[in-house]
Structures are given as C-alpha cells and as structure tokens.
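Q: Got a minute? One more chain.
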Amino acid sequence: MGERVPEKAGRQFWRAGFFFVGLGLAAAFYGGFTLFAGNMPEEEAAALSVTASPVLWNPDDWEEKQTGKLRFIAGLELSSDNPDFGGLSGLWISPDGTALLAVTDQGNWLSARPVHTGIALSALEAVHLAPLRGPDGQPLDGKAMQDAESLALGGGLACVSFERVHRISCYTHEEGTIGPYAADIGLGALKEALPSNGGIEALAVLPGKETPPALLAIGEKAGEDGLMPAAFLSAAGVKTAAIRGKDPFSITDAAFTAKGDLILVERRYSPLSGVGLRLRRIKASTLNEEGPLTGEELLNAGQSYTIDNMEGLAIRETAQGRTFLYLISDDNFSAAQRTLLLQFELIE
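A: Always. Here it is, folded:
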C-alpha cells in the first residue's frame, strides 16, 4: 500500500522443515496450491519510452556517499508519458544486473534492461509493460484484484502479493519475463491478521533452489503488540514469524542475502516530518531465535535525502563478494511524487 506524500540461516530453516521438496509434495501438504499452465494468450508486452535522469543522494551535500552502512552508488528518476507507468512496488534484478522486473498496483508487471557504467546504474533500456493475469488467462479486473505490492522470484516462479483481496499468486518466470499464472499459495492464519488495505507488503524467497520456493511474507501494519503480521510459507504449512515493528515505520519490502541475512525496507510519513526511509538487517544466525526479531539499523534517512515512497528492494551479489541493494519508489500515479530507482552498496 502506498502513502500519498508531497547460506547459514537457509540451512537452519531447511533443517527445521520449512522447505518445498517438489510440486507434488507441496500440493499434498499445502492446501489451495493449485497449478495452471499455458493459459496466457500470445501477446507481446507493450514497449514504454522511459526517461532516466540521474539524481544525487544528498542534494545539499554532493560529496556525501556513505550514510549508515550503505554507500550510495547511483540513482535515477524515472518518468514516462505513458499514463500506465508508475505505482511500482516490488523489485527483482538478475544476478548479472542485466534484467529487472517490478509490479504495479494497477495489476501490471514491468520489465527492463538495466545499464551499468562500471558498477553504477546509469540507464534503463527495453522497458515493457504487460498485465498480470488470473487463472483464466485474462488480465486482473478491478483495483481490488490488481493491487500488487511485492515480488519475489525463486524456483522458476515469480510470486506476487496482493492486498485488498489478500493473496499470493505465483507465475512462471523465464529470462526476465513473467508468464502464465501458476498457483495461489494459501496464507493460513496470516490472512486473518491482515486488515483490508494493509496486506502483505514484503515477500522474500528463502535462499535455496526449491520449486516452488519457501517464502517469508510480512504485512504492512503492526498489531497492538507492536509485531508485524508475518509468516513462513512452505510445504510444511504456515509458521508465524515474530518481527518487531518500530513506529512510525512500516515494512514495505524484504529480501534475503545469499548468506541468509534478512534485509527489511521501512517507510514513514507525516505531514510535519515528511517521508523517511529505514533499512534493517536481521542476521541469519538470529532468525531461529525465540521472541520478536529486531535486527540492526543499516540506514535511517529523512526527506533531506533523495527518497520518496520507497516500496521495492532487490539484492544483487557479485562474484567478487560485493552486495548491491536496489530500491524503487511507488509514486501512486501522483504528480507530487517521483519514481526513483536507487543503488547502494552494503559496507561491512
């Protein structure tokens, strides 16, 4: 939901039984996991003309590159004359940095080819937009069904969470495209904890190559106990997760590093203080601990920095051991907001 504003942990989870061991077992253990295939009409995604303008991290201090434990590498403000461009939530970038996917809260998916100059993101090319589809192969109909909020890829599937009609739908995925509808994943008790317009904002695939993937799903709004509604979803069932929220922030996305650390993106907004961005890391070694998980703060930035309604996170790790974080913002299709794509490097 957007706000309108001016290797170790994986092994631990697998030993605990939170993994899929194949579609057959998933169907046997996971109620509601029904497969469909080949039902999307042959149709090329529509090409978009998108302008990518470089932005500074701190307009008041051009030399500032490192904030918290993140080093700013590059940033782009994206714009297009196409009225369907915008509302981007959820983000994925291929390990080699040559393919990008995002989803929109109007029921579309967007693909692009990122261009890097050296290590720095410098442009987007070959941008296309196409509708997400339902089990009948038709585009999703109406805002209640179209409101996509997060995207996670694994095991040959692209899984998308939706709010209003709370669900996680998975699609086939190949070479930087989203294909036919494949399955809906049952949410169990997690669904009852999600308010009408406060659904699953963050969706992350646990490290591994299982098909379908094991997921961590996190709701947007903390309960009265200060905990975010969250659960691990797997063939073994739905296991509640305890993640501590921190007012006035709301979690908007999450992703795992290859080592199994969980990175959380959080947003805040108020008319007085404006928009804010926070990133947290929950170490792999603590993910199985009892009690609410809090983690360490990596970044805390206010509106003096180049941020907006940041809603999507992708992590790309290189063979040289460098970890890059990409963040994208949801402009809510508002002229008062921007679509930003920011690239950082995690500094240890």
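A: Residues 3-42 have pLDDT under 50 and may be disordered.
Q: Perfect, thanks.
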